From TrEMBL:
Positions annotated as active site in the UniProt record: 148
Enzyme Commission no: 2.8.2.-
Gene giving rise to this polypeptide: hs3st3b1b
The name this protein goes by in its record: Sulfotransferase
Lineage: superkingdom: Eukaryota
Protein source organism: Scleropages formosus (Asian bonytongue)
Gene3D superfamilies to which the protein is assigned, alphabetical: P-loop containing nucleotide triphosphate hydrolases
Amino acid sequence: MEYSPIISNLYALSVSPVKKKLLVLGIMFLLWVYMLYSCVGYCTSVPSAMVDPHRSKERTEGARVDLVSKLVPKKPQGWVDLESDDDEPSLRTPSRDLLNNDADTERAEDWDELGTEQRPPEPSAMSTFSNGSGTKKLPQAIIIGVKKGGTRALLEFLRVHPDVRAVGAEPHFFDRNYDKGLRWYRELMPKTLEGQITMEKTPSYFVTREAPARIYAMSRDTKLIVVVRDPVTRAISDYTQTLSKKPDIPTFESLTFKNRSTGLIDTSWSAVQIGIYAKHLDNWLQFFPMRQILFVSGERLIRDPAGELGRVQDFLGLKRIITDKHFYFNQTKGFPCLKKAEGSSKPHCLGKTKGRTHPNIDPEVVRRLRDFYRPFNMKFYQMTGHNFGWN
Ligand SMILES: Nc1ncnc2c1ncn2[C@@H]1O[C@H](COP(=O)(O)OS(=O)(=O)O)[C@@H](OP(=O)(O)O)[C@H]1O
């Protein structure tokens, strides 16, 4: 009787228990490799398959963008590019617009961990794997302003919510990058599962004349959030930020006035102009009803973060998950911080670019600025139905 080599091997194995075990282990290893291979194949194929149903939607969005492009000029006309940090002189108010800089752009140093571990700027390989499911969607809610209002704190606090997924950096899509198209914009977004909200924050949108029409064209249902702060302290905060990067700029006092002896305020200076909230809001109300815009008090966000977050969660239709249990007041920073941030078990405060010491400003100049803003503030309280108490 002839034996095949396999049978003869098996026969040999039957007499050697050690080899038998080795064979079983080998087979298990091969099965494990096969399963892993299948899973990777599945995981990489799922997102693209899930994106497909959106292709037709994408075309509609593309058509809408074409319409907006026809209706809305891509570059602001007759409007100071309040936020841009590029050096195109045509987009700037000559010499007076000294606060143009890129400091809004999200940076690693905006986020400070009170542990030794650094927060990775990009998701790690592991988190990419675990976040592999879901699809990238255009944001349903945007923090549109205001610069230096507390927008970073609000976004980082909101990210603690399991139903909120947000892009960390400021996309500047509706002001600087509109030419790149909605597909580009959507690609920046994190993947979300059913029921999760996609968000971003770019504070310069609030003062960008084209932004309301452009966001409306993306989706008329977009929820808008504006973090507002006393316009005088906001202006000083804005100036402080620029001073930290350009120490040679003129004093706050000299930039505030067109002519100091006449006391005429220079409204073309972006630090002043951004704070005329009533004027900017008017622009948004041409496209969005008031009920679709939530105003968060920057001052209250520091004093009572859980209270403001409660309002924001209600506005977004989210379960109130973020409560005062999530915050503690950090005496050294002088701000509320998170006991645990998204994806971490350690306490987190915003970094050193938030909460810089403001320079002392001549009290007379502060008083003049308060007088200047008062009627605009009153108008803003009237429009929003909320007294922010800035006087
Ligand atoms: N929790 C917490 N931690 C740190 N800082 C906080 C916090 N809440 C609000 N703020 C205030 O946020 C101000 C910066 O606002 P923004 O994040 O909107 O600035 S930016 O426009 O994105 O550059 C920043 O302004 P400055 O103090 O002038 O630096 C802070 O006062």
